């Protein structure tokens, strides 16, 4: 395999890595609900005042928060590009003895 | 906090980093195989190296999936290694801690550099680095076997070192073994070169110093015993050239035993502080050490001699195959049985074929490291981990001896027909 062909395979691999990484990054939910179990002291702390006024909501021992997806798309895309390129390079070079200094 | 069962940023990040590190490991190992091909035919050892890589990845997966087997990987020393790695990665590269850790905790440096460059990416990329280092040691030791015994000897050594069960299991461990084994592979290559050459050459000297440096950086106490092996090999090479192999080795063994005995007698008077420190370490109850060895005393000559002898036997024979209290120990039985087989085959073939002088350096290093590990052995399980260093070294003479046996058998058959 010539150097030009190796470069072409590496470019294709890097592009594939970029596309896959972007696909995963955009396929993730932009926001999702996180459920946090509340301990008994926390529940007293949260609902104690309301409970005393007979206004405690019918809530289970959990609290829910909405978390935004961390904005790391650029990082994920760059790493996907590098990973794809390196994987392609590893696949096309290993097993070929002519690239080495000897053999 | 309970995260939803969806793909999240950390998972994608860790997968990408693992792919990058894995690809780099494969590329570097392949370049190493090509680079050492002229020395020991290593470019043709692709199959055992691939098998070793696959088995090591499988062992990491099994250890993660079966806590009863994998708990040793995460609960004992590894937790402190990870904490040290993260603390070091948090420091700027200009900090003097980086230099001091490079000298005394060399095994942590590749992991800390990974976290420094990429950020915290979990333990799997670091395990891939460990696997790469252990396979680099396999390639190095096979190259030396190939140089001594030819292509098939190197190939046999590569298969043994690559698929031996305890080496496969401990290669994924974040510990000192993998980098220490790289140092041992470099040192044995230099020692064999020194044994074969009449005059000194700069390349074996540099390789040997690098190997000693890696051994010192991972296990400073072992560097002393490795240095003793270097001195014995250099003296042995000179003596054997003058008086012949058998007389030279017999004389060298006698002198080594006498000097060792004198050292044990003198040590309590010359280095009492070091022995007190060693005694303190032997007395420490280590968390997770569930196969403790009997108490021993090293602060006087008698105790030191007894410890060196008995713990060497412990290192070579324990953990007992009948100690099967947990799933990890049951899995370890396979490694122990393979070790016994290796030792028996080496002894039988060496007796039947006669000792090859070119194997003397590795046998001297094995003897010195056995005593070194024995003196610091606290737990039989720890001995099982230390023994992978001896497995790697023993793979080299085993490859050469099995190749000679194979060749002799083929000759006998051709004569018979």
Oligomer: heterodimer
Uncertain segments of chain A: 99-103
End-to-end separation of chain B in angstroms reads: 76 Å
Largest sheet of chain A: 2 strands, antiparallel
The number of distinct helices of chain A, counting runs of at least 4 residues, comes to 3
Radius of gyration of chain A (Å): 26 Å
Q: State the order of secondary-structure elements of chain A, H for helix, E for strand.
A: HEHEH
Number of strands of chain A: 2
Computed CA radius of gyration of chain B, to the nearest angstrom: 22 Å
Q: Structural class from helices and strands of chain B?
A: mainly alpha
Number of strands of chain B: 0
Would you mind describing this structure in some detail?
The complex is a heterodimer of chains A (103) and B (417). The radius of gyration of chain A is 26 Å and the shape is rod-shaped. Chain A contains 3 helices and 2 strands, in the order H-E-H-E-H. With 103 residues, chain A is α+β, with helices and mostly antiparallel strands. In chain A, strands 1-2 form a two-stranded antiparallel ribbon. Chain A has 2 domains: 63 residues, no CATH class; 38 residues, no CATH class. The C terminus of chain A is likely disordered. Chain B is mostly helical and 417 residues long. Chain B has one domain. In chain B, helix 4 packs across helix 17. Chain B starts with 8 loop residues before the first helix and ends with a helix. Chains A and B meet through helix 1, strand 1 and helix 3 of A and helix 1 of B.
